[in-house]
User: Which sequence fits this backbone?
């Protein structure tokens, strides 16, 4: 057994080392090219990943992307836009970069996806503190669920909607969903597990709890518009993000917002 585990570890080390080496070889030929000195990227408020403080935009994803930008000598500024409109503008090439999207075949037609996830979205239902904390989706019936407008959900949830076991209520923000849940205008809020925990802790202490099990766990990636001049940034961004994860700076930023609990993407 020990020998088997040793071989597995060695095999993973070889694969990981090969991946890093490929990123280095790809980026080595690009560093000499002219890179933009500044980028304006977009997202929507999605605490703790993207937080609108009025006079500034902060958050885990914002700080990570700006840190990676500095590693590449690029100043990255962020602006906010509603999620549905943002994807429409990205499709038309009016937006250069976004944090963050799930990878789909449709989106690959107009987005350059990076390959190292910014974070993992564990889609989870949140309910009131006195509601059952265990509710598999196949046992849910006649629920109205708040969700961010324009967000991709899961095939299982889409099937539940089609079967009319669930009604989705599209809103402009997850926080708005929690406000409606507090007023009993919806039965649950669908969001990232870390987003739900952060919002509950910051704005609704003790009011809500996550339902087990989570519906899915999906990587979310930083993306560039599918423009020829932006494509060379993909391997550079991958390499810099990988380094930020390896040297612990990703964890430092994450824990500053969320504390030491919770899973984060690992190389």
Assistant:
């Amino acid at each position: 057994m020990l020998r088997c585990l040793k071989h597995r570890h060695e095999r993973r080390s070889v694969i990981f080392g090969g991946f890093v080496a490929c990123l280095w070889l790809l980026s080595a030929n690009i560093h000499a090219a002219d890179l933009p000195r500044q980028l304006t990227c977009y997202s929507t408020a999605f605490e703790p990943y993207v937080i609108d403080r009025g006079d500034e935009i902060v958050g885990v994803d914002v700080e990570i992307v700006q840190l990676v930008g500095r590693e590449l000598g690029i100043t990255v500024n962020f602006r906010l836009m509603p999620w549905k409109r943002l994807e429409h503008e990205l499709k038309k090439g009016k937006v250069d970069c976004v944090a963050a999207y799930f990878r789909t075949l449709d989106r690959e037609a107009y987005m350059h996806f990076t390959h190292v996830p910014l974070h993992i979205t564990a889609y989870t239902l949140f309910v009131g503190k006195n509601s059952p904390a265990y509710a598999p989706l196949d046992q849910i019936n006649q629920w109205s669920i708040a969700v961010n407008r324009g967000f991709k959900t899961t095939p299982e949830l889409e099937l539940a909607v089609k079967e009319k076991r669930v009604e989705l209520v599209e809103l402009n923000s997850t926080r708005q969903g929690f406000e409606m849940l507090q007023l009993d205008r919806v039965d649950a809020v669908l969001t990232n597990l870390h987003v739900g925990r952060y919002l509950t802790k910051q704005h609704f202490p003790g009011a809500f709890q996550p339902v087990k099990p989570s519906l899915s766990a999906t990587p979310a990636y930083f993306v560039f518009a599918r423009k020829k001049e932006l494509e060379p940034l993909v391997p550079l961004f991958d390499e810099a993000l990988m380094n930020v994860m390896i040297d612990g700076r990703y964890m430092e930023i994450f824990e500053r917002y969320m504390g030491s609990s919770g899973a984060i993407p690992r190389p």
